[in-house]
Amino acid sequence: MRLSKSSALVLLVFLAACAHKPSDKAENLTYVGLADSKNSFVRTVAPKDGKCPTVQFAKAPGEVDVLPMQEAKFDSTTVCEANLPEGTKTVIVGERQISIPESPKRIIIFGDTGCRLKGNYFQDCNNPNEWPFARIVKAIDKENADLIVHVGDYHYRETCNDPVKCAPFKDTLGYGYRAWEADFIAPATSLLQAKPFVFIRGNHEDCQRAHEGFSKLLTPLGENSCPQFQETRYTSFGNMLMVNFDNATLSDQKLDPKSPEMAVWRAHYRKMVNTINSRPETEVWLMVHRPIWGLAPNWNGPAAVLPVNLNMQTLTKEMPLPKKVKFVFAGHIHNTQISTGNHPVHVVMGEGGTALDYYDAATRRLIPAGFTVLPSNHGYMVLDKDAQGKWIGTVKGYEGQTNFVCSLEDPKMPCDAPVKSEVKK
Ligand SMILES: [Fe+2]
Question: How far is the CA of 194 from the centre of ligand 1 (A)?
Answer without folding.
Answer: 26
